[in-house]
Structure formats: structure tokens, C-alpha cells
Amino acid sequence: MTTLKEYLMVILFLGLPLTWASCSGGGDKVTTGEVQETPPSVAGPSEGKLIVRLTDKEKTELNIQTARVSSSIQQYTLQAPGVVFPAPNHVSIISTPVDGQISAIMVHEGQLVRKGQELFKIESLVFGNLVAEYLQAIAEEKFQTSRLERLKQLVEQTISSRSELERAMSDFQRATAASISAYAKLKAIGVPDHEIEAFSNAEQIDPSLKIHASINGSFDQRMVDLGQSVNALEKLGRIIDLEQVLVKGYLSPADARFVNPGDSVTIAQREGSSLNLKARISSVNPGLDEDNRSVVVNIEIVPENNWPRPGENVRLQISTSSVGEVFAVPLQAVTYDGNQAIVFVKIDDHTYEKRAVDVSEIRDRFAIAQHGISDNEELAVSQVFSLKALSRYELIAEE
């Protein structure tokens, strides 16, 4: 003859919706406090407990396995996509500082260049005027220097007045300032000192501005052709130094809160690839990337065997830890009652307590919980669905 308990168990396993309200009372198998089936945002601090007691037969048949949990700093492994970029200070955009026309190209794409090497020549009226201004300023400074020295001697001999010496001093200071200004203008457009010094000995002004490499590296892009007219600040090419690259990883905001500078990371060509490098996170951007709404982590690494190269997509595996101590609950121990995560805590061999837990993250094979569990408690990791069904049966039976 089918018992009431068996009949109700069949109904529960078929998934028929049931509604019940908890009530107090004594039974041979269940002891309950006040039970509140309310969402976590509504439930108060005095939420009741539900105790499930098993008979000897049920204990033997179910043979429930348990796992002991304790709070600790948990280690996580986060997966994230990444893109390789040239590292800061290891990439240089070559541009023209003045208007002009490309008169010579001395480099080809893919060619290795050294710092200071000539890359382009630009015929420029602006540059020619700057050279002329510098030469005039140098000549005026020399004249005013000589005039000042001569007037100092005349004043000492009382041949010239003190006011003439003061005017000469003022003219000398203006000439010096003009010379410094003309020199600074040439330096600002990238003319090296040895070329500036050579202007004074040249018989005529050459209006060809030489564009030099600013770093060692490989010439990556050429953006102009011979004879092309260019405007000031227009890009001519790019140099990349592959001795160091920057890998940008893209994390969800939820994952990013676990990541800190200094965390170790494995960079792989693709998931499961044997080609990988070990590195550490250099920095974490404080805001979200506007394009993909992700938090960007930056990793500077030295390539090995020409890998990785700028433009490549890579996979990141970041090793990090929790902020403070948390509980790592085996996923087998967690089930849900509506939207509320629950576990069954072992009281003794025949008794389990149904308890709500606060699951903040799912990591690997564990649910990370911060509240609802105490150190060294044992949780059921098998027959959890049966315990859940029995807990519902007990509530119905009390009615």
C-alpha cells in the first residue's frame, strides 16, 4: 500500500507546482522553526531553519557523502582574450614638422633602422627660412658681442658714456635671446646639433630637412611617396621595436575586481596551445574600455622567438586570489530554491539543516560563498536533490 510520504514524493519528482506555508508543530521526524521562503533582499535577519531528519533506512539507502569546508584566501584562474600592441617607448610615429615635399626616401618597410638614421628628406621653404633666421641671429649676436666688449674698454678710458654701454648691453641681450630662439626652433623640428653647427660653415642654405629615426627598430609602415607634398604633422611612417610588446587583456567588471597588478598570467597563442609565455600584470585600467565595455589589464612582455607580435590575438590565463577569506563550496553541494542558493549542512549522521548561502562567484568547480556557512561545517555533496525533496515533503506533511 502506497504511503502518504511516497505519494507526495512522486508528485514532487514529476515537477508539479506546490504551494505551502510553514507552521510549527512536533513530529517524529522533523523539527522546524519559523520558515520564510522570501527573496534575500526581503528576508529579515531572523530567517528560520529547516531541519531534515533521516530514518536509519533512509540514511543507508541515500548514503550521503559530505565535504568539510573552511574559510581561506581562494586562488582563482580567470580566462580572458587579449590583443598584442607595441609597448610604450618601443614604437615611434614618424611625421613631418613642417610643410614641404618629399625629395628622398632612404628606408623600406621591414628594414631595421637605428636611432638617428636618416629616413626621409623634405624640401621646405619653411625650413629654409628657419635656417636663415638662425644664421642672421648668430651673426647679430657676434656683432653685438664685439660691440659690447669695445664699449666696455671705451668707458674704462672715459671715451664713451655709461649710457652707451647700457644700450649696448641691452642690444647684446636681445641678440642673444634671438639666437637662442632660432636655435630652439631648429631643435623643435628635429634638427640635430651637428647639422645646426654645419649651417654656419655652409656656403649656401640647403632647404632640405632630414627626418631621422627616433628609436632603434623595424620600419613598419611607409605612408608617403617620393615627390608627394605633405603638410606639417602629417605621418610619414612608423618604427616598432620588438624587444618589448604590450598585451592588453579584456575582463568583465565582475572578474576584474579580483585582479591586481603583479598577478601572474600565462599568455598563449590559443586555448590549449603549447606556445605560451609567463608574465605579470603591469597595471589595470581604472575605467571601462568604451568600445567593448571591459576592464583592460596591461602586460608588458619580452617576445621569444619573435612571438607574440603586434596585432596578434592571444588567450590569457590569470592567476589571482579572493579579496579576504571566503568559503569554497563544491558545486555538488549547491542547489537552488527559486533564486536562492541553498546547501544542506550535516548536524549528525541522521540530521541535515537546509541553509541559504550567499554565492558571489562560480570559480572552477567551486561556488564562492562569503556568508551562511561556518568554519569546519560538513555539507552534503551527494543526494542533494533528495534532501531538497524531503525538505519540501516535511513542509507539506506539517499542513
TrEMBL record:
Domain Multidrug resistance protein MdtA-like barrel-sandwich hybrid as annotated: residue spans: 95-237
The keyword Membrane is assigned to this record: no
Superkingdom as given in the UniProt entry: Bacteria
One CC-aspect GO term: cell envelope
Record-linked InterPro entries: MdtA-like_BSH, MFP_Cation_Efflux, RND_pump_MFP
Gene3D superfamilies (alphabetical): 2.40.30.170, 2.40.420.20, 2.40.50.100, Helix hairpin bin
Keywords, sorted A to Z: Transport
Biological processes per GO annotation: copper ion export; plasma membrane copper ion transport
This protein's record includes keyword Nuclease: no
Family the entry assigns: Belongs to the membrane fusion protein (MFP) (TC 8.A.1) family.
Name recorded for this polypeptide: Efflux RND transporter periplasmic adaptor subunit
